[in-house]
Amino acid sequence: MSQARLHVVTGKGGTGKTTVAAALALSLAGQGKRVLLIEVEGRQAIAQLFGIPALPYSEQRLASAPNGGSLWGLAIDAEEAMIEYLDMFYGLKRSARGLKRLGAVDFVTTLAPGLRDVLLTGKVKEAATRTNADGHRAYDAVVLDAPPTGRIGKFLDATREVANLAKIGPINRQSVGVIEFLHASTTAVHLVTLLEEMPVQETLDAAAELAAAGFHLGAVFVNRARPDLDCSGATDLELIAAGLARADLPVAHASALAGEVTQYTARLATERENKLRLDALDLPHVQLPDRNPPVDLAELHELAEVIAESGVLP
Amino acid sequence: MSTLDLAALVRDPRTKVLVTCGSGGVGKTTTAAALALLGAEAGRRTVVLTIDPARRLAQSMGLIELDNTPHEVKGVADGEGRLYAAMLDMKRTFDDVVLAHSTPDRAEAIFANPFYQSLSSSFAGTQEYMAMEKLGQLVATGEWELIVVDTPPSRSALDFLDAPNRLGRFLDGRMIRLITMPARAGGKTGMKVMSAGFGVFAKVFGKVLGGDLLRDLSAFVAALESMFGGFRERAQQTYELLKRPGTSFVVVSSPEPDALREASYFVERLSDEHMPLAGLVVNRVHRMATPEDGSEPIGAARADAAADRLTQSADPAAACAAAALRVHAEVARTAEHGARMVRRFRTAHPDVAVIEVPALPADVHDLDGLRDIGALLSAD
Fold first, then answer.
1. Complex ipTM, two decimals?
2. Which domains can be identified in chain A, with CATH numbers?
3. What is the pTM of this model?
4. Residue ranges of A 115-144 with Cβ closer than 8 A to chain B
């Protein structure tokens, strides 16, 4: 993870991977870096999170950070990426526009959905490796809000699938570059999970799949964990009642409170059990506090701070 | 503002098909399984079609691998009712559709084409479409008194209603006609009738992907074309099936803004399409315990402030109450947030019956757990 320049963030749907990706990008920007946050699923999730109008197919400044750092956002659209690609490699911009009118891109990516992923990952690579006229990298780090764990392996390795369909030709050559870049140690794949059975299982499955496919895993982000309140033994009705009386609170609440403590303890035990299952991965963990969605900018900065202090960043 | 009584719905002999839908991660599969068990234990011959159940839940129902054939679930209470469960095998179902609408030779050619693999396993909406196809098959057997279908965890719940039509539109589309033209016209003579549009298409894809790919694609589409009529007809039948009396939709959500936004879209869409909506299940609702004297629970801020004061004392009673109050504050914050989210939905959809299912302390992975959920789905 220490050399990572591209951070791929995945997780089961509903685990908050967009929030984590944005918080990670903010904390990288906080180190004085120029950081690009990318989304690929056409949800305009970045715009929603930062409270700005929908992102066009171009890089927009999202925030400034201390030490000269800055955060930029990009929503990649497969169709636009294809036109850019055809133009860049074949000078076919006009034909490409014609194809767009025909709905050809939609058609082809429907028949070979891998092609859409090839275009998306190709554009991610382009942004992450782009250099300015002075030879410096356009971005110090790129954070990708990637598809969910169920699809991540296919997404990142889509170029292989397409290479099988298109056995020859320039697409094949281009693919090799993308495959090598995504498998290099400069690309880290992070997993976001909740401490619940299904998300943890998907995290374990995805980690095994990604490792077997030769990707470098980064950190596990445990999102929305309950505070580990020390409440063992706080179920003694008489003690609670006496304490409530001292705080001028109605004593009749003692049994309700004790019931909540019992339930809370059971939930913590389930979370702990799920956390133990994650330990099998032998990856660094970052535990993020529970902030009720929709997360606002102040909370996002708070999460970025937690990530910065966790020491997982290079 | 009414409460949704799913137990009554499941027991009603007029209810034939229940479809659970909603965004991913809201407990949709568990809800479907609990409803099916409720139906079976009310004496009905019930089958539940699941899409992607949690491993331990699947095991508890005797589901070990993808299998389109319903298996009987053991451990259902004695009585007339039976519970069967199946886990959708998407590719198998697609193969069946192709076989049903094609000659064996044609089917072989289609299966062998590299494009079939991607279409059958990853066409956006294939899973949704195949779930509906499988539902049609289960209905056609006439074996079941109650069929509960879980829908795939699409990001957008709407995918599932659109899928049959989208696939039909896709197979009917302009690009398909362009691309099949050379194959239909029989080679070179067809070049004359090719539109300028196809010329552009062929030029670009020939240059980028190589000529073979385009030929493969053209052959594949031509082979599929023989089945277009069948596909469309079937999609239409499935759509009609969903509108028949006896079918009910149960929208499932969690008390989070994203999931409830999806639920809202779905509710509106069902209403636009005149599809019968039973109501909304909100899973994982955190509630504060009701005090013995029936008074309002203490608010989060007040509980935190009291805990702060008590922590300053070394007295064991103070420490104990402080710890309990901290937990209560946490529970109260979650409960207040969830209640606010659900209230927002209810205000926007005053006619939709809603039932809130309290969050359970642990995940459900056995029939007893499903039975507990079933009891919570019944309005008292």
1. 0.87
2. 6-226+275-309 (3.40.50.300)
3. 0.88
4. none
